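Box 3.1 — From sequence to structure: D-alanyl-D-alanine carboxypeptidase/D-alanyl-D-alanine-endopeptidase
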Amino acid sequence: MVNLTTGAAAYESAGADPHTPASTLKILTGAAALHALGPGHTFTTRAVSGPDPSAVTLVGGGDPTLTAGDDRAGTRLADLAAATAQALTDVDVTTITLSYDASLFTGPAVDPDWSPGYVPSVVSPTSALAVDIEDRPDDPALDAAEAFAGLLGDHGIAVDGAPAPAPAPADGAELATVASAPLSTIVEDILTSSDNDGAEVLARHVALAADVPGTSADAGPAVVAALAELGLDTTGATLLDGSGLARGSAVPAGLITSALVLAAGPDHPELRAVVTGLPVAAFTGTLGDRFADSAAAGLVRAKTGTLTGVSALAGVVVAADGVGYAFSVLADDVGNTLEARAALDDVAAALAGCGCA
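Predicted structure (token representation):
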């Protein structure tokens, strides 16, 4: 627990000992992505054609918010389809073949460090091309291409045959693009909803920004390296994924708290989304149904973390004396998840009610 005004530790117990962070690890992934890419960074999905203008390739840019629906928030694949259809119509092309390129990310789409039952129950295969990933498609890139084909059809462009994977032509002509919301907004949404898929995509982007392959194996170390670049002490940190699903990940509570202090402070405004994206007790995200009858409602912003045997809570709180604190509590030898969650809530409520300065 650290005073956000003075930077001094108000309380610490085993803060340097690595523990399984579960989804509180997303705080670190978000901070690393904002540092590596910048809060204004956007992810672009493209449609290109080759020497034959009727051969079109849908190219994934690793946008975790791409959606094919009209009723969901995110980057609209329909907008890309409309612009692509117009570009094709302008050159008198009304029938195409469609391929798709998701090669931005490499390596296994399913992290080998995840428990076998996680896909598709709580996470999808990680892909640089996916739409409505929360629907858990078996093959996200193919699913996106099929959705794109259907949307092109709505604009009078027929697709001959089924979409097939193929690298985009090196000298391809760009037909249309669609860009995501700024990264800061994406990080906020990932933290509020505890989006496993989005966190995995961001971790691979951190790897690419470090000039290493966009694989699950490279993503974790790249996140740790980015945190070290921010001046954080990463001693003891082992990250096997970006979402916190990998039980072999181990992080000191002190590292998570230090990242929160940095994000809340004046020296790194590019990290602010790490704090503003934290769920608000009793109001938003994964804390929406917690703290309802607590005096801490609205005063605690925190990221939850839950795996079998693991409960965690990390965030910021305004105490009764008006002082802000960052805190992180990690417990990875839990017998009863509900009892552990209640205990963590009690800790956060006690912090909100204390005059700790």
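Summary of the box: The chain is about 35% helix and 20% strand.
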